Amino acid sequence: MISVLIPTYNYSIIDLVQELYQQIKETEVPFEIIIADDSSTNKKVSIKNKEFLSRITDCIYIENHKNIGRTATRNLLAKKAVFDNLLFLDADIMPRHKNFIHLFLKSSLEKNDLIFGGITYKKESFNPDCSLRWKFGNEREEKNVQQRNKNPYLSIISGCIFIKKDCFIEFNSFLDDFYGTDILFTYNLKINRINVLHINNPVYHLGLEHNKKFLRKSKKAIETLIHFEEKELLPNNYSSLQKAYLKLKKNGLTKIFKYIINPFNIKIEKILQTKTPPLFLFDLYRLYYLVKLKDY
């Protein structure tokens, strides 16, 4: 039994639902697919989604009257789910394997609380306008099972997770709507010793942000990180970015670091929006923003 839960905002889910529906039917397990539209502004897309989904059996379509954010929408979906096995999928993904659903069901949530299959990127779909997000995804997010098991919690990307309902509700029910809450979710899993299984069952991430938008969202994620630290919900040494900051702080180098990077920050932003952005500069860019906010 499985509840497939998909939050969407201004994104067509027709191809994804068609693929999932066909795969689930082949497994012959009881299922439901619930899509929640978070008050999309692109009415053309949302109307097409709604018309298509109305013709699909065992499929429920929810429309939020106002935009409440991804986290709240996912919590809404979890509470509405009938079954205890939840498959959360972002709208902008597509399974790589034709037995995607079968591989999750075969792995079973009886022995594990969460199963993650990985994420991958289509090499032929490179777009220069999205070069930074594409490169970051390819070099930092796309990992095989062995690589993910070295750091099993921080390797989880919640855009595609198979998870027990009570586990999700307990560890992902954040009241505030922030961008970048995955880090707190994975930390909650870690400190509560939740059983996580990594398998080879990736999804393609298709909806890549343009470079400027990805830079803005990266800053938002850092602001969220600091907020969680200040609320004592997250330790200050969980992520690699936090550890880099602590190393600078320990050696009394935060002011010098800001002094060195500040004159080049605008130039670094421009370089990060080129066709081949260096990720080490992206690391410096994010570290600079973290230092700037914490050592103002």
Structure characteristics:
13 helices, Spore Coat Polysaccharide Biosynthesis Protein SpsA, Chain A, alpha/beta, 2 domains
Model description:
- The structure is a single chain.
- The chain has 296 residues and is of the alpha/beta class.
- The chain folds into 2 domains: 2-205, Spore Coat Polysaccharide Biosynthesis Protein SpsA, Chain A (Alpha-Beta Complex); 211-294, no CATH class.
- Helix content is 47%, strand content 15%.
- The protein has 13 helices and 10 strands.
- It has helices at residues 14-27, 43-53, 70-80, 100-107, 131-141, 145-149, 165-172, 182-191, 211-230, 240-250, 254-261, 265-271, 279-294; strands spanning 2-8, 31-37, 59-63, 85-89, 93-95, 114-116, 119-120, 160-164, 196-198, 203-205.
- The strands form 2 sheets. Strands 3-2-1-4-8-6-9 form a 7-stranded mixed beta sheet, sandwiched between helices.
- Helix 1 links the parallel strand 1 and strand 2 (31-37).
Q: What does this entry show, briefly?
A:
This protein has 296 residues and is of the alpha/beta class. The protein has 13 helices and ten strands. The chain folds into two domains: 2-205, Alpha-Beta Complex (Spore Coat Polysaccharide Biosynthesis Protein SpsA, Chain A); 211-294, no CATH class.
